Amino acid sequence: MNTPKKLLISGFRHSGKTAFCLSLALILRDQGLKVGYFKPLGWQTFVKERIPSGKQLGYFIDADVHLMKEVLKLDQPIEDIVPVLINFNYLTSMAKETDKGLEKRIEEAYRRVSEGVDVLLIEGGHIPQIFYSRKLSTYHLAKKFDTKFLIVGNIRSDLPVDDLIFTKAVLDLLNINCIGVVINNVPRISLQRTKGVIKPILEKNSLKVWGIIGENRELTAPTVADIQDTLEGEILEAPENLDLDNILVEDFLVGSMTCESAIKYFRRSINKAVIMGGDRDDIALAALETSASVIILTGNLYPDVRVLSKAREKNIPVILVPYDTYTTVSKLEGLTGKLKPGNTERIEKLKKTIEAEVDWKGILETL
Fold first, then answer.
1. In the prediction, which pLDDT does 42 show?
2. Per the CATH hierarchy, to which homologous superfamily does domain 222-332 belong?
3. How many Cβ atoms sit within 10 Å of the Cβ of residue 356?
4. Could you tell me if 168 and 50 are in contact, meaning their C-beta atoms sit under 8 angstroms apart?
């Protein structure tokens, strides 16, 4: 049996390593390679599911693994793709599991997912040092599986530069073969500085930069479905022809002004969410006359029937949330879009971006 080429892709939270992993897998598949995927340590996400009776059931999954399995149409059972699921209380929730037992579970799953593939992409944990106490961190697993190590980094200031260089030094001390870094989601205003200043510093410190990917709001903006999940709001109006997973929200505006100035204010932005008290029918109607992606009504205050009628006419969803406006805005601060299997257009755009901006052929040659 042929041994597959192996690449462990690691990064810190919100670095975009799953999106990169998915894109790379799709690119390599286009080259005729059979690509496998493995995430030894998954992160528990609670998923709500509404059943016909109207009640909600819930279960735990790793949302990233679910995405990879669905999009790549992986044959292996989910328990093999992600053999260990952990959460914030893993030291107590997994206290009855022995180190050897966990290690054996991961090893057996690894053996099964690597069978018959040309390239195996291994995604690192939530953060690389997680589970270090059980000797099953991303660093431990990279040595165990003797895999090349690629870092996906998100640089929005100079501080992560030293984090990346330090991580490379740690990997060298551990005799783990780090082939370099992909810098992801760089703000457009910082793109030239990243290429001209930061990239040379990283490469001077023996950290090869395989690609620098500029920020693209079409790829990172949350969708109406992301917002509804975050706020756990009630959808008052959502026309059946709308796919909430594919309606982007690129801006958030608060409707706290007078009705006279509202229209002019709302027209400054497109693809926006407008947040206001549920009793501000005048502001809601004004927002519905502009290019809004969603109307968010706060305080559990139901709007006048005219608002819902206008929303239906304009094909704009309306979400009711129990929080006040300030709390609602705070919960949405920094929200970015999570890729879901149904985001076909976004996934295709992401793949094309990685294909153009990253030297994936060079990465493949190192394996």
1. 92
2. HprK N-terminal domain-like (3.40.1390.20)
3. 10
4. no
